[in-house]
Specification:
Distance between the termini: 21 Å
CATH class: Alpha Beta
Structural class: alpha/beta
Shape: globular
CATH topology: TIM Barrel
Number of domains: 1
Order of helices and strands: EHEEEHEHEHHEHEHEHEHH
Number of strands: 10
Mean pLDDT: 96
Strand content: 15-25%
């Protein structure tokens, strides 16, 4: 089977140190967390940054500072994916402007966040064409099959050009208490008619069951404190690396090798 890409999502836009002491908020803590997750089996880091008050930020200089710290810790051994998440703070034009100013190696974009009237299909076409030209490794987030079908329509009509896109299926985003179920993956798998590689992320203590199901079906996985603080037995995880290690163990049980950062870059034409 294709090597499994494990992405660590160690902090997200909302969690604080009061939620868990090992939620990394500073560049230095993000860097040490990244190294521990690399050692546990991750090949990609999904990176959020915070402002001085610990709030979600898309500040370009803040990103550059955090990326520099992480690179000192891991070199080229992790693909560094920044988020463009709105998190109820940013609007689509500012999200796009940040990505174009930063020109990161990799980025995640929420399709429904960018697919807004002020952007329009012409704006989407321009942005995705820019991402393709710049060879920014882009993961497109679908929160449900409506998002996925919208993406497929944009692709089929040529609004989004051919490029090595990566999809992320979010399981259980709109369920009660945001508790995911592996069965949440089934509609995505049936609706996914394209050839893009895909990954999943899930909420709550069922995260591990969800990502194991995805790995068994040939998908890739994102795990971490952004969405879940618990190990598969329901106890609180000591750190993000423990969640990565669980996913790596699941891959081993499935006979699926782990992807390196080199494998990820090769898969997406970097």
């Amino acid at each position: 089977m294709e090597p499994l890409i494990i992405t660590s999502a160690p902090n997200g836009a909302y969690k604080q140190n009061t939620d868990h002491a090992q939620v990394p908020l500073t560049p230095e803590h993000i860097a040490t967390t990244a190294k521990a997750c690399l050692d546990a089996g991750a090949s990609m880091l999904h990176l959020h940054i915070r402002d001085a008050q610990g709030r979600h930020s898309l500040d370009v200089e803040g990103y550059r500072t955090a990326l520099e710290a992480v690179k000192k810790a891991v070199g080229q051994e992790l693909v560094l994916q920044v988020t463009s998440e709105a998190a109820k703070v940013y609007q689509a034009p500012a999200q796009i402007a940040m990505v174009q100013a930063l020109r990161p190696e990799a980025v995640s974009v929420g399709l429904r966040e960018l697919d807004q009237p002020e952007i329009g299909e012409a704006g989407l076409a321009d942005f995705f064409a820019w991402l393709a030209r710049e060879k920014v490794m882009t993961q497109v987030i679908a929160y449900d099959t409506v998002d996925l079908q919208r993406w497929q329509s944009l692709r089929e009509r040529g609004v989004v050009p051919d490029a090595p896109w990566f999809l992320l299926f979010v399981l259980g985003r709109y369920t009660a208490g945001q508790q995911s179920n592996p069965l949440d993956l089934v509609p995505f798998v049936h609706a996914h008619t394209g050839s893009e590689p895909w990954a999943v992320c899930a909420f709550g203590s069922t995260e591990h069951a969800c990502v194991t199901a995805a790995a068994a079906l040939g998908g890739h996985v994102r795990v971490g404190f952004e969405n879940n603080l618990q190990l598969k037995d329901g106890t609180v995880a000591p750190n993000n690396a423990a969640l990565v290690a669980q996913a790596a163990q699941a891959a081993q049980s499935l006979g699926r090798p782990l992807a390196s950062a080199h494998d990820v870059r090769a898969l997406f034409g970097r």
